[in-house]
Amino acid sequence: MSAEKRNALGKGLSALLNDSPSVNQNKNITQGSSVSETNSLGSISEVKISEVEVNPFQPRTEFDDQALADLSASIKLQGLIQPITVRRINSHSFQLISGERRLRASKLAGLTQIPAYIRSANDQQMLEMALIENIQREDLNAIEVALSFQRMIDELKLKQEELGDRVSKNRSTVTNYLRLLKLPPTIQVSLRDAEISMGHAKALLAVEDPATQLYIHQQIIRQGLSVRKVEELVREIQQAPNKREGKQPESLTFQMQKIQDDLASKFSTRVKLKVNTQGNGSIEIPFLSEDDLGRILEMLDW
What we know:
With 302 residues, the chain is α/β, with parallel strands linked by helices. It has 15 helices and eight strands.
């Protein structure tokens, strides 16, 4: 992220806070959590870790165990360099606004107290600060970003353009992330776990049929297809004979379509369900090789 964007985002966060304009002006670190609320707002204080509740609005769901262990080891040697940010609940209770990774690592390091900025924020500001801080992180995966964007739209009642302004991203970028949430859950998990890239996911979004998306996704995993190869495969599927000749496949009822989609998800391949007006039909499950056939037969307990 450029310095200009970071500055713009920093100003946005400051505008959300009701405490003093510059925390850096207060160089005194107060000890313990018994300091008065009035004097501690906007300051850096040492608070008891046992008195810090996690942020219920935290959008981040995945924390790398090894990264936490590395940070914990660093904290043991050098202490915590960047304070966490909390809001006061009562005289002996705080709620985390940002810094859950630092809080977790400090607990692993055996610390009983942790330096913290004490701020004033309502629930909506808590949510927005937590989301924006996480979106800033470079290691946040695409699905976490997309879910954070969607939460800001749903819970803060923002339009996509307004959201873009809040997070210093253009509207098309915001739209591309939100579209990821339209992909089947299997593909979203694969993107979250870095089995496929954002480029792969964008190529899959060009396909409307979820079963076909799952079929292509399986080929990406099995064959290690590049984004360019996936784009070529998508074009080939879109130019299939039925498409070129204007023939439309027989329409399925909602119930049958759901069955077809569920089967495609179960077998991780494109499944075709054909049903005639008398209720008779067939199920086609294609396979790519003898190994692929063996995998399907094993799932069928053959």
